[in-house]
Design brief:
The chain contains three helices and 20 strands. By secondary structure, the protein is mainly beta. The strands form two sheets. Strands 2-3-4-5-6-7-8-13-14-16-17-18-19-20 form a 14-stranded antiparallel β-barrel. A two-stranded antiparallel ribbon has the order 9-12. It has one domain: Beta Barrel (Porin), CATH 2.40.160.
Length: about 425
């Protein structure tokens, strides 16, 4: 029993250290998950939740129900975990983004720690989970020269710069309970925290009569929210199983403290600074509705699909003063994926025990820029590589190749490649052996 408690303590300390390091790095701007001009708006890029295994299948989550993996996004799926099993799942990734406009091309690469998850069954039909993951990410650095002839004639050359960093993270604690043999429920509690930092400047590069203006905005967020999930699991025939899942996350207002500093610099006038602190109440995560299913044929084939809906139309945060007009709206996302395992119980040929995965994702995002709705589409693929012959520990890898946006109407088209790798540690702690 002492050995079991020691293992639990080691896992919890490891998860805490990894979580704290990730949160501090992202808060201080030392690590960026993304680099995109589209993160100028709202709270940035929304993180695509799910394990690396699910990300390789297009990001399906709602109907995913795997006794060898952690699905913390739909907490109802936790109830399938065996009473003897403890799991730890953590991952890292990198993203290369190539951006193209009608005037220029740029590229950027980011590396990041992705998530950490821990799950443990504590009672019959009841499993608990804890972990850390991002919610949104901001990273951009844009410079443009004024093109209005009247402004140039009156004030000379004017340089505008916009940059931003930071994002929102979440610590989550969840529980999944098998209420009936075919029906499970679950709930996640989230603690949202983070900082959104934006910097703007206007510099009159050829006319000293005008003062340069530098502005810095820091919005700090701290709030508790929750998500509920359900799953219905049934056998269709002797070898085929159907799981239908759904989640609902109510709208979560994120009370924020916003600090704005404006500095005016001129050749003659003395530098001045003005600090303003004000409460911001229009920052929120919209209500989220998700519905999905999976069909599994024994341990050989799995297919699934998800649909997610969010309404951002009343969001209002830093949506102006940039080179694009921005209108928030409703988002719709479709995900689909497949997993194939040639022979899961083949102990002689390791390649036949690999899980081969592929998927696709299409999203009509909440952003309408310069009158053009921004869509995003991608293809995914990956594999699960067993680390042992009998237990479920695996290395999971996923690659996503996609595009977002367009060069129409003066906008930016992004092509991105994301590589993610994670380790799922699967262990049996509570088994009683006849001989020591």
């Amino acid at each position: 029993m002492l050995k079991i408690y020691g293992k639990i303590l080691i896992v919890l300390i490891t998860a805490t250290v990894l979580s704290t390091g990730t949160a501090l790095a992202q808060r201080d701007g030392d690590a960026f998950r993304t680099y995109s001009p589209y993160t100028m708006y709202g709270i940035g890029d929304m993180y695509r939740h799910g394990s690396i295994a699910n990300k390789a299948m297009g990001g399906i989550n709602y109907g995913s129900r795997d006794p060898l993996g952690i699905n913390s996004y739909n907490p109802a799926a936790l109830s399938i975990q065996d009473s003897l099993v403890v799991m730890l799942d953590f991952a890292a990734g990198s993203k290369n983004t190539y951006s193209k406009s009608s005037l220029s091309n740029t590229s950027a690469n980011t590396f990041y720690f992705d998530y950490v998850d821990f799950s443990l069954r504590i009672a019959p039909n009841l499993t608990v989970n804890a972990g850390l993951s991002p919610v949104s990410d901001i990273g951009y650095d844009i410079e443009r020269m004024e093109t209005d002839p009247e402004q140039i004639n009156e004030r000379g050359d004017i340089r505008h710069t916009y940059s931003g960093e930071g994002g929102i993270n979440q610590l989550h604690w969840g529980a999944g309970y098998r209420l009936f043999p075919k029906f499970s429920i679950g709930v996640n509690m989230h603690y949202y925290f983070g900082s959104i930092n934006r910097y703007n400047s206007i510099e009159f590069t050829t006319n000293a009569m005008y003062n340069n203006i530098f502005s810095e905005s820091r919005t700090r967020i701290s709030k508790i929210g929750f998500t509920v999930g359900t799953q219905y699991h049934t056998r269709l025939n002797s070898s085929t199983f159907l799981t239908v899942g759904a989640i609902y996350q109510p709208k979560t207002v994120l009370p924020a403290q916003k600090e704005v500093t404006t500095i005016t610099v001129g050749d003659i006038t003395t530098d001045t600074a003005r600090n303003v602190s004000a409460s911001v109440n229009d920052v929120f995560l919209p209500a989220t509705f998700g519905l999905g299913f999976t069909l599994r044929r024994t341990d050989k084939l799995l297919i699934g699909a998800d649909y997610t809906y969010q309404d951002w139309s009343k969001f209002n945060m830093d949506a102006s003063s940039h080179s694009f007009s921005f209108t928030p709206g409703k988002s719709h996302t479709l995900n689909a994926g497949i997993e194939y395992t040639p022979r899961a119980n083949n102990l002689k040929n390791n390649l036949k025990r690999w899980n081969y995965r592929a998927g696709l994702r299409y999203s009509k995002t909440f952003m309408t820029c310069n009158g053009q709705n921004i869509t995003e589409q991608s293809l995914t693929f990956g594999a699960g590589i067993p680390l042992t012959r009998r237990l479920g520990s695996k290395i999971n890898a996923a690659v996503e190749v996609g595009q977002r946006g367009t060069v129409k109407n003066g906008l930016i088209k992004e092509t991105f490649v994301t590589f993610s790798i994670g380790i799922n540690i699967f262990d049996i702690w509570f088994q009683k052996f006849q001989f020591n």
